[in-house]
Hints:
Strand content: under 5%
Order of helices and strands: HHHHHHHHHHHHH
Oligomer: single chain
Number of helices: 13
Structural class: mainly alpha
Shape: elongated
Amino acid sequence: MERRRPSEKREGPIGRGERTEGARPAWQERVKRDRDVEKSPLIPSEITPEDIDMGVRVQLKTLTAENAEMVARHLAMVNLLIESDPELAHKHALAASRRAGRLAIVHETLGVTAYTVGDYSLALRELLTHRRLSGSNEQLPLIVDSERGMGRPARALEAVTGLDRKKLPVGVRINLAVALSGARLDLGDAKNAKLELEIPELTPKQVFPQSPLLFRAYAEVLRELGQDGDSWDELADRAEVALSQVDGEMFELIEEITIPTSADFERKPAKRDFDSAKRDGKTFERRPRPTGGDDRKPRGERASEYKPRGERSSDFKPRGERSADYKPRGERSSDYKPRTPRPEGSDGKPAPKRDFDSRGRDGKPRGGASFGKGAPRPGRRGPSEGGGRGKAR
């Protein structure tokens, strides 16, 4: 039967015919790729999931092994680049969000990077989601400051309504006081802005990592009220010096890595050409092979006792030359002892060899009766006894 060729006018993978420059058929437009989504940034091979904290890795257990590894590596890149390259860190956070957008840690990371690059609407959305999922208030200062960045200082003050600030950690409480003070200044209320900063941590007797920021914010508020704030600026400088001295005693050894680009992956490694390297004046040093011990000699140096194959030793004798003490097979030596003969019987003749069917002293067959044809084997039943494959009775 001859098979018909599909028509060119028919749409579909089988009979689509020749392509035209017009619009694509409907079957080709079922799957559309979003060209606006940027590709995930490249990650150096030195970055592994072990570069993030154990608590973060525990939150990634709900993902598949391959996906959890990639998300962990993107989060590690965010921690590495958040201060030096915030834009690239934000791209890694977006890549992690596309892979694991339901995890609280991913929302928090994306919100922090968005706040760093100035995208306050995205930062506010992600940080509020993180607060709703985790119940944590650690990013509350960034939520308040994001509201300020969007020009809504009144809503920034509403974000902390009914919150007991004494239960917050020290660092969060200081940053929140600075953010709320800035919201009060945006509303033109410098007096209440000063009250927001007057917390127990506003003291020169004890220094925290956020103390320089708190002292400078207090000095700015005092200037808004027409007072002198230079003394608080000096305290901020002294606090920074004290913190730098403390941090100088603690150091962390990190490995210097290179952030790859797409051009690095497209570039093929050059092959090793010894002839061209020799022309360029380069030399390659061959690694010495490991030796088995100190007594082992190199391959090129022969041992002094070594003799070539042609030179035989003096005690070597060819096959044809027999030694003096050699005796042929027929000539027995004097110490040769013949085999012990068999014992003689009553008639003086040697006892005959034992047969399998020979009888013992008691007259009974030794080893049982002979197994001739038709004789039953020991341990088996004959056909008459019900065994074997005889006819059924």
